[in-house]
Amino acid sequence: MRFRLWGAAMVVVGIVALMITPVAAAPAHSAPAPRVTSFYLSSTGFTPVPTLGGITGIDRKPDGEYIMIASAGLGRYFDARIPFFSSTGAFGRATVSLAGRPILGPGFMPMMPGAAQFEGVRSRGNGFVVASGGAHQFVRLLGPFGNQVRDLPLPQAYRKAKNTGLDPRRGLIGVAVAPGSGMISTLTAGGLKQDPAHSARLLIWPGRGTTEFVYRTDGDKLAADVVAVNKTDYLVLERGKGRATRIFWTTTRGAQSVTGKARLSGREVAMPKVPIFSTAPLPGLRAGNMSGLGWGNWLPDRPWLKYRARVLFVVTNDGLGVPPRVHALEVRFPKR
Question: What's the confidence (pLDDT) of residue 34?
Answer without folding.
Answer: 67
